[in-house]
Amino acid sequence: MRSERARAVVCAVLGLLALAAATGLGTSVPEKVVEERAFLDARPCADGETATGPADCLRTIRATVLSTEEVRSGKSRHFRVLLRAPVPAPADRPLDLDTDSDLSEVLNPGDEVSVTVWRDVRVSVRHGEVSDTVDPRPDDEVGPFAGLTLACLWLAVLGFLGALGAVRRSRRRADGGSFPRRVGFGPAKIAGVLGVPLLLGFVAGRVWDGWTVVAMTGVISVLVAAQATIFALRVDR
């Protein structure tokens, strides 16, 4: 009984932590939706406008490449481009591109480039007819945030279910009655179930935008993740 009670406490704490994470992520989703809409509605800046102004326009910064090199960041490698000063922010920061991108193969010191900026986001960099993305685009963030929120929420559900099951088994043991054996729900099953909303978030973000992404990610995740969880529990029994 002590073992079951300890398991109930651990599962409950896990559920509360996951619920707190889901709440924190969920509160940022509306902000991401508004930011995405502002970005999609952005237009090229007119004379005298700035990217931080009310128009939220797309600003083009022209500069000259100072240096290029491949750098390692952890286990990944980037093609880092530095622009010759003076360059207005945020283009004054290093531009980290994929090492296998088309731009990394043609860009050299002394080349002229155009950096498209929205607010503090470096949307893309272009040299001639070749362009590449730099920072994560605002219209690519709603889906992953929605998927991660739902994944944490579903993990909280699993934690509370585990706590409830442990409490029930503890009471059955105390009463001397029979009880079902504990259902194993290891990392493989949890990763499979939680991977559903994450994958759906990325896919939905490529198809829809705004609250449609959130709604479709939620509806499909519930239909798929719930069935996957029930199937995993039934198979274990």
Radius of gyration: 25 Å
Largest sheet composition = 6 strands, antiparallel
Q: What is the strand tally?
A: 6
- Low-confidence parts: none
Give the helices and strands as they follow along the chain. Answer: HEEEHEEEHHH
Helix content: 40-55%
CA-based shape: elongated
Task: Please describe the structure with a list of short key phrases separated by commas or semicolons.
237 residues, single chain, 2 domains, 19% strand, alpha+beta, 5 helices, 53% helix, OB fold (Dihydrolipoamide Acetyltransferase, E2P), elongated, six-stranded antiparallel β-sheet, 6 strands
Description:
By secondary structure, the protein is α+β, with helices and mostly antiparallel strands. It folds into 2 domains: 2-35 and 140-236, no CATH class; 45-135, OB fold (Dihydrolipoamide Acetyltransferase, E2P), CATH 2.40.50. Helix content is 53%, strand content 19%. The protein has helices at residues 2-40, 102-106, 142-175, 187-207, 211-236, and strands at 58-73, 76-83, 95-98, 112-118, 121-127, 130-133. The protein has a 6-stranded antiparallel sheet with strand order 3-2-1-4-5-6. Helix 1 (2-40) runs antiparallel to helix 3 (142-175) and helix 3 (142-175) packs parallel to helix 5. The longest helix is centred in the N-terminal third of the chain and has 39 residues, at 2-40. The radius of gyration is 25 Å and the shape is elongated.
